[in-house]
TrEMBL record:
Pfam families: DUF1028, PG_binding_2. This is Putative peptidoglycan binding domain-containing protein. Residues 204-277 form the Putative peptidoglycan binding domain. InterPro entries: DUF1028, Ntn_hydrolases_N, PG-bd_2. It comes from Pyrobaculum oguniense (strain DSM 13380 / JCM 10595 / TE7). It comes from the Archaea.
Length: 286
């Protein structure tokens, strides 16, 4: 009762999924950095995800790993699985007993699959969007999920969505492999909400800003001081001069917002952080 896509670019591995099912992110996505990604759905047996990843870690390509995992499963014709290994080998299985419309599209480095869909156009749209979207793997996965929903998605409606992308040492401060891991467990517009939460994740945690999208502290000192004053971090009237007190207030605010990994050691501010600060300041009326 789900549509999903698993993919890799040879470095990142990930899964994006949406469904008229509560907390779909708890059951469908499985991934391991430098190994691969799996989606287990349609009368899902989540334990198959771990089995398939273990087989791929042991050297099996995606198809072999899925076939071996399903072989002893008496309910395999009710299962739907998409899998991709880190080498880009992708495979999908749609059991004959999966509720209509059920099907999949497999391409280079990805597999899109779904059941109880509006029609085959859902997975076809996902595949086209994935192949057309530029950027990182996460951008391609989100684009595919949005395209699937636009094409009709789960014909029963909407409820939850999730996005998982792993990158070796790509997580917070380089301490984990979790590049992106967000879920919407129950929402009337889960894919749109997933995109909204991703923007916050990206601003707070990802270091992929456009290197040209920066502003000079001396050029925006007055605006920053006013925003910080409204937010309670700068405690005097703006001077328009970026001094030690302004720097301290800015860093205090950045820590409050969990932007410590977005603090630069030069005389610049990331444009994304600057715009967010001004927006937050405008929301406070004094």
């Amino acid at each position: 009762m789900t549509f999903s896509i698993v993919a890799t670019d040879g470095v990142d591995v990930g899964v994006a999924v949406a469904s008229k099912f509560v907390a779909v992110g708890a059951f469908v996505p499985h991934a391991e950095a430098s190994v691969g990604a799996v989606a287990t759905q349609c009368y899902a047996n989540p334990s198959l995800g771990r089995i398939i990843l273990s087989a791929m870690k042991g050297g099996s390509i995606a198809e072999e790993a899925v076939r071996r995992a399903l072989a002893p499963d008496p309910d395999r014709e009710q299962r739907q699985i998409g899998a991709v290994d880190i080498r880009g080998n992708a495979y999908a299985f749609t059991g004959r007993a999966c509720p209509e419309y059920a099907g999949h599209v497999v391409g280079s480095g990805y597999a899109a699959q779904g059941n109880i869909l509006a029609g085959p156009e859902v997975v076809e749209a996902m595949a086209k969007a994935f192949e057309a979207q530029r950027g990182e793997l996460l951008d391609k996965l989100l684009a595919a999920l949005e395209a699937g929903e636009k094409a009709g998605g789960d014909r029963r409606g909407k409820q939850s969505a999730a996005l998982v992308v792993l990158r070796p040492r790509g997580g917070y401060l380089g301490l984990t492999d979790v590049y992106v891991d967000i879920r919407v467990d129950d929402h009337p517009e889960p894919v749109a909400e997933l995109r909204r939460i991703f923007r916050i994740w990206e601003l707070t945690l990802l270091q992929r800003d456009d290197p040209t999208d920066v502003v000079s502290k001396k050029d925006v000192a007055g605006e920053v001081q006013e925003a910080l004053r409204r937010l309670g971090f700068y405690r005097k009237e703006p001077t328009g001069v970026w001094d030690e007190e302004t720097e301290a207030a800015f860093r205090e605010w950045a820590g409050f917002e969990n932007f410590e990994n977005k603090i630069r050691d030069d005389d610049k501010i990331w444009g994304s952080v600057y715009r967010y600060l001004l927006e937050r300041g405008r929301q406070v009326h004094r």
